[in-house]
Automatic annotation (TrEMBL):
Protein name, UniProt field: DNA-directed RNA polymerase subunit beta
DNA-directed RNA polymerase beta subunit external domain: residues covered: 426-491
Keyword Transcription: yes
Residues covered by the RNA polymerase beta subunit protrusion domain: 8-333
């Protein structure tokens, strides 16, 4: 309870809380650009101690975003994900330093919050301790201050372990210790922690009490207490509680036994030549903070601020009339929650390019963020792959860049235990038989076991065959007798993440390329006509189901109605029938062409027809990039590995016009453009279709409100919303002011501020949303209404688009060839894609070749091949499939050049490869500028596509032109094309009038240079000489 400063008058107690129903549905929140949140209300009781009067009241504590069924949060109409943080756990850790060929051990006690204790041993055998990074002192001094006063008592505690003949660590430490009594020790400790303050025994007692034994200031957390008990279990048997893992507040602060236990272990390790320090990067020592705990840590800050306000108000308000709602100001709590979800480092804009990217984003683990590491400080060790990562964090999928190794992904089967440590499942071995029983082990438990790999040969009843099996023997790989095996891996995909497990023949790919393959699958754009791969790993259905983008039947039943908007199923379940108001019919709304965060279209299409019978859990509607309930990120394409007239040199590829014509890789992209109608000082802005000085042609698609009609085709520069703003006197030109004076015309004092389609965009208007104050929408101050226009476009594949396979084999389309020019097979079939064969051997991603062979066989035999990652089809099996399909066993064939009709000199590898189109599309990146905006100071063109800027002509480019002596070209680039303000205006004029371009003037950068020299105190004057004087 919160008490007032004197703790005499008031006491405010929290009783319980409730969350209201959310104001909008998930869909409604997205439509209205609102948050999917519900109000938090808290019941409180205020006790007036002087009168004994009690007041109960419900207080509103702000709106909290609620997690949707898919694990996301909707904040201001945008889906966001809070990713989990991988952080060093609280508890005791043992470290070591080498000194003169001897390993000296130390320890750290790290709480969840509060002061750190760091122990170390120096070369003479003195064990010292630092409190909160302050000055070092002997540990005996700290023990005395904590109540172990006499030297004999201290020696007795460590008598059992301090047995080293050469050095007695306790004796050495006591020699160094200047204090003899508890009071002396307290004063010395106080001097070390608070140098410069007046040290009295009472002050010191209070300080230590607050620093280490007060729950407000020091909290080990239940994880920390559990880790302490685990780590110190071999010496001081701490009071083990049966079953329950909830620790009381008294148990979550430090205890004298903890300090003694840690010193005991340090001495033991110093005496043990085999001892090794703890590895801080081991996953047994790092834990995951999920969204709940991250938010809890932020709310603690908000509630502490609120508590301060409550205490202030208790002392200022009138005691007779005071109520809880007057005391509690919810602002700090709301501000902290809002900040966490909108600008927090771990709250990210959801990546939903396709179903896989969304799923993998939720499974992401980051070592950065508040309380974590920073990119600059993180060394090589933290980023590196660890043996304890096996089955917990994927060794392959991580970004390539400054975040490499700091951002990871959960392995396929990993889970979190109650303390936030990562665990992975194993089959238990009982009496030499693999049982069906599954047990989850954390990083430390696994290191004490012998675990066989998943490809162990076994009979149907689970007996392992052979005498020796490959296993990890207490963490190190090797061969071991089968009788000593305790556990068996659950699957070959256990160690890798979902995206990596979707790569067939992963075992034949180099790890760097597999990393690119995993990351690029998350960038695949959903095609209009998706196609499941011929060569699958078997995980595709599971990914599609778990992504939350397919609809699944909730109960057995029969389809009553199915169209593009809704599916109705009559349930066979009697319970549903009684409960539902519409006679046991369950309705499923389909999502139609809505915009994803990455501007791709998400769309669901029904797979069932009226009259179909469905079972619970059946897929009844596909999402985008899903084909009949199977993840389909791209298309199967007939590929030939051959060099073709240098057009596919390096990583360029050639595609057939057929892929463009048949819309194989076409995708839909939806962007929204918005405009605010504001109240200005000179009056309100108005949306209208009557805009001054604009041709009828441009206004033909606007309605009387000035908003474009749905279905209109728009190009860059077209008006989407016609809007006019009032214009002040100062904005008029001198001619207009003259006309005003003569004719007194007051009418047209407006300027055109319409919303137009930006440069480089095109498409068709598919949606218009209008938000206004009158309709009750929340708008920022000064805005009357806000209009959002959605423009969709169908993008066909073309030169400059980036495509990629699943093995990190990426390339850019260099040319779209007519079908007749493509190389063709002996039966006349032209191939769809031509890839340079030289890109394969050096990159060592041979998986793509095996996939091509097997895909060719699967296409001819009419099935989908399932070949799981890391335990896929062998070469012999592929040869057999090719033979069965009536193809050459080496997967190669004679290929004819479409230009000449001649066969190529050698036989060529041809087959079906799965290819994806990535989000890096040429239409988003292509950019050109003639005239545009200039920077204010230097008067040079801006840079970047967003600012409609130009290309930088840098120092080295200038050298190139100087090298060729192209003086006039260079002068033109450095003056009239850049920052010669007068020159560029007159050059533009000359071009329009068709005259000769005049000579350049002084560029603005010269004036900037002179100003900079003036700022250094050098007065520079420019002396101009006329050209006639120069010639003399």
């Amino acid at each position: 309870p919160v008490k007032d400063f004197g703790e005499k008058d008031f006491e405010l107690t929290f009783m319980d809380y409730k969350l209201d129903e959310p104001k909008y549905t998930e869909f409604g929140a997205r439509e209205r650009n609102a948050s999917y949140e519900s109000a938090l209300r808290v019941r409180t009781r205020l006790l007036n101690k002087s009168t004994g009067e009690m007041k109960e009241q419900e207080v509103y504590l702000g709106d909290f975003p609620i997690m949707t069924k898919r694990g996301t949060f909707i904040v201001n109409g945008v889906e966001r994900i809070v990713i989990s943080q991988l952080i060093r756990s609280a508890g005791a850790f043992f470290t070591s330093t080498w000194y003169g060929g001897k390993q000296l051990f130390g320890a750290k006690i790290i709480p969840n919050r509060g002061a750190w204790l760091e122990f170390d041993t120096d070369s003479s055998g003195v064990i010292g301790v630092k409190i909160d990074r302050r000055r070092r002192m002997p540990v005996s001094m700290l023990l005395r201050a904590l109540g172990v006063e006499k030297n004999e008592d201290i020696k007795k505690l460590f008598k059992k372990i301090d047995t080293d003949t050469s050095t007695s660590y306790i004796d050495e430490t006591l020699k160094r210790d200047t204090t003899k009594t508890r009071d002396e020790a307290l004063i010395e400790v106080y001097r070390r922690v608070r140098p410069g303050d007046l040290a009295t025994v009472d002050n010191a007692k209070q300080l230590i009490e607050n620093m280490l034994f007060n729950f407000e200031r020091y909290d080990l957390s239940r994880v920390g207490r559990w880790k302490m008990e685990q780590r110190l279990e071999n010496d001081f048997k701490l009071n083990k509680k049966g079953g329950s893992t909830e620790y009381a507040k008294e148990e979550r602060v430090l205890r004298v036994e903890d300090v003694v236990g840690v010193i005991y272990e340090v001495i033991r390790m110093n005496n043990d030549p085999e001892a090794n320090p703890d590895d801080i990067d081991h996953l047994g020592n790092r834990r995951v903070r999920a969204v709940g705990e991250l938010l809890q840590n932020r709310l603690r800050v908000g509630l502490t601020r609120m508590e301060r306000i409550v205490k202030d108000k208790m002392s200022t308000l009138d005691p007779a009339t005071i109520t809880p709602s007057q005391l509690i100001n919810a602002r700090p709590v709301m501000a902290v929650a809002r900040e966490f979800f909108t600008t927090g480092q771990l709250s990210q804009f959801m990546d939903n390019t396709n179903p896989l990217s969304e799923l993998e984003h939720k499974r992401r683990l980051s070592a950065t963020g508040p309380g974590g590491l920073t990119r600059e400080r993180a060394g090589f060790e933290v980023r590196d792959v660890q043996p304890s990562h096996y089955g917990r964090i994927c060794p392959i999928q991580t970004p390539e860049g400054p975040n490499i190794g700091l951002v990871g992904h959960l392995s396929s089967y990993a889970r979190l235990n109650e303390y936030g440590f990562l665990e992975t499942p194993y089959f238990k071995v009982k009496e030499g038989k693999i049982s069906g029983e599954i047990e989850y082990l954390n990083g430390h438990q696994e290191e004490r076991m012998n675990i066989a790999s998943a490809d162990v040969k076994a009979t149907p009843d689970g007996r392992m065959s052979g005498k020796f099996v490959r296993a990890r023997i207490k963490g190190t790989p090797g061969l071991i007798e089968k009788g000593k095996i305790q556990y068996v891996d659950i699957s070959a995909q256990q160690a890798i993440s979902v995206a990596t497990a979707l790569i067939p023949f992963l075992e034949h790919d180099d790890a760097n390329r597999a990393l690119m393959g995993s990351n690029m699958q998350r960038q695949a754009v959903p095609c209009v006509k998706p196609q499941a791969p011929y060569v699958r790993t078997g995980l595709e259905e599971r990914v599609a189901r778990d992504s939350g983008l397919v609809l699944m039947a909730e109960e057995d039943g029969e389809v009553v109605e199915a169209d593009a908007i809704i599916i109705k199923i009559k349930s066979n379940n009697a319970k549903v029938e009684k409960k539902g108001k519409n006679k046991g019919i369950i309705e499923y709304q389909l999502n139609n062409f809505s915009r994803s965060n990455q501007y791709t279209a998400t769309h669901q299409k029904a797979l069932v027809r009226p009259g179909d019978k469905v079972k619970k859990g059946d897929v009844i509607a596909d999402g985008s990039a899903i084909d009949n309930g199977v993840l389909a990120l791209g298309r199967n394409v007939l590929t030939a590995f051959v060099s073709w007239r240098g057009h596919n040199f390096e990583d360029a590829v050639i595609v057939s016009e057929k892929l463009v014509r048949e819309d194989s890789f076409s995708s839909i992209h939806i962007e929204d453009f918005s405009v605010d109608v504001r109240e200005t000082k000179l009056g309100p802005e108005v949306t209208t279709c009557d805009i001054p000085n604009v041709s009828e042609e441009k206004l033909r698609d606007l309605d009387e409100e000035g908003v474009i009609r749905i279905g209109a085709c728009v190009e860059a520069g077209d008006i989407l919303v016609g809007k006019i703003s009032p214009k002040g006197e100062s904005d008029l030109t001198s001619e207009e002011r003259l006309l005003r004076a003569i004719f007194g015309e007051k009418a047209r004092d407006i300027k055109d501020t319409s919303l137009t389609l930006p440069h480089g965009k095109r498409g068709r208007v598919v949606g218009v949303r209008i938000f206004s104050r009158d309709a009750g929408d929340k708008l920022s101050p000064g805005v009357i209404k806000s209009i959002q226009i959605e423009v969709a476009q169908l993008r066909k594949i073309g030169a400059g688009d980036k495509i990629a396979g699943r093995h990190g084999n990426k390339g850019v389309i260099a040319r779209v060839l007519p079908e007749g020019d493509m190389p063709y097979l002996p039966d006349g079939t032209p191939v769809d894609l031509v890839i340079d064969p030289l890109g394969v051997p050096s990159r060592m991603n041979i998986g793509q070749i095996l996939e091509t062979h097997l895909g060719w066989a699967a296409h001819h035999l009419g099935y989908q091949a399932l070949t799981p990652a890391l335990s896929g089809a062998t070469e012999d099996e592929i040869r057999g499939e090719l033979k069965a399909a009536g193809l050459a066993e080496d997967g190669r064939t004679v290929l004819y050049d479409g230009h000449t009709g001649e066969p190529f000199a050698n036989r060529v590898t041809v087959g079906y490869m799965y290819v994806m189109k990535l989000i890096h599309m040429v239409e988003d990146k292509i950019h050109m500028r003639a005239i545009g905006p200039y920077s204010l100071i230097t008067q040079q063109p801006l840079s970047g596509k967003a600012q409609f800027g130009g290309q930088r002509f840098g120092e080295m480019e200038v050298w190139a032109l100087e090298g060729y002596g192209a003086a006039h070209t260079l002068q033109e680039i450095l003056t009239i094309k850049s920052d010669d303000v007068m020159g560029r205006a007159s050059a533009y004029e000359s071009i329009i009038k068709g005259e000769m371009i005049k000579k350049p003037n002084v560029p603005e950068s010269f004036n900037v240079l002179i100003s900079e020299l003036k700022s250094l105190g050098l007065n520079i004057e420019v002396k101009e000489t006329r050209s006639s004087e120069r010639e003399e």
